[in-house]
Amino acid sequence: RQYVDGLMYVKDRTPVSNGLAVAAFESAIDLDPQYAEPHARLAEALRVRMSLDPRRENEETLELPARRRSTVDLALQLDPRSAVAHLELGYLLFNSNPDSARGEFEQVVVLTPGAVEGLAAQRSLYYQTKDYTNALVWADRVIEMEPNLYQHYHMAALIQTALGRYRNALDTFGVMADLRAELTVPYVESGRIHMKYYRNYDEAEEWFLRAKELGDSRFVGEVKSDLSSLYIRTDSPGRIWAPYPDDDYFGFPFRAFAASPDLRQVDRLITLIEEEIESGSESNSAWYSLGLSYERNGDLERASACYDTSIAILQRSVDSIDAGSFQAGSANLYLAMS
Predict the structure, then answer these.
(1) What is the pLDDT of residues 45-99, one digit of tens each?
(2) Is 245 helix (H, G, I), strand (E, B) or coil?
């Protein structure tokens, strides 16, 4: 019963449900420590827990990669043919050893050729290798099998965006929002498509402000960054502060220059961010803002280098495809803007 309860809770990726999932799988392990699947599913729940704290603000999150690895290793020791364990090992290896991760995902497909997790692994394999056409085929099949799981629509929309099917991506993000109205991701990503590809800045602003209203602390920096990008690109830097009158933008003292579109103020911005970075800030948002400022000044080479650094910081903090798809996709959009 505990294992079945955990399977239900782990699908609903919220902090409360995640806590219930972890507790359920731990109880199942206590009852039957030789059964591999609760161990493998516990690793999945721990991966989800990491995705709920992308900025690693909780000290416990820093310990989760090691716990996930030991949990997966034990599951595979108990049952070398556990597809879930191979899947979780693939997610663990995705950033540090992509080739080994591919091997694990391929093993999932072999072990569960008709199951949704095998199809999702195949989708991820194609997405990883930039074979977006085949990735979309598998993404559609996954949605057919689990039409009510919002994460599948997220991946499908990212693939559609990569294929240049922006209208389809907007529609898919819309379905995602319909499934879970409290999610920030579909609003942010829809705004980025309108800003980057359609140059529809009014529509983009509307989506970003909807995302802000949701108040998800995990994405506050991302939404601020997008609004900043939007207002700078529309020569409206004085509006940067309008949505955040009581907040220091990324913790940096931007008020001094925000009221003027004068490029000399952008020079001041560059100085302020560089000072913050030199003081030890390891923030992808800081590097992105610095890149945006260089871009505004016309120094595209330095802007591109800053965007690269922002992406590298994100990649170091992402430990799975599911956790990283939103942020890594966003960083690549930033790079494309340079």
Answers:
(1) 999 888 777 656 666 777 888 899 999 999 999 999 999 999 999 888 877 787 8
(2) coil
Q: Are 289 and 250 within 8 A, CB to CB?
A: yes
Tokens 């919220």 correspond to what residue?
Answer: 14
Q: Which two tokens stand for residue 55?
A: 């900025």
- What predicted TM-score, i.e. pTM, was given to this entire model? 0.64
d(CA 198, CA 35): 52
Q: CA dist 98 to 120, 151, 194, 320, 324, Å? A: 17, 22, 32, 11, 14
What tokens does 273 get? 């961010």
- Separation between Cα atoms, residue 209 and residue 186, nearest integer Å: 12
Which amino acid is residue 243, in one-letter code? P
Question: Which of 277, 221, 211 has the alpha carbon at shortest distance from 247?
Answer: 221
- Residue 22's closest CA among 35, 32, 34, 3? 3
| Dist CA 274 CA 268 (whole Å) | 10
Is the Cβ–Cβ distance between 223 and 208 less than 8 Å?
A: yes
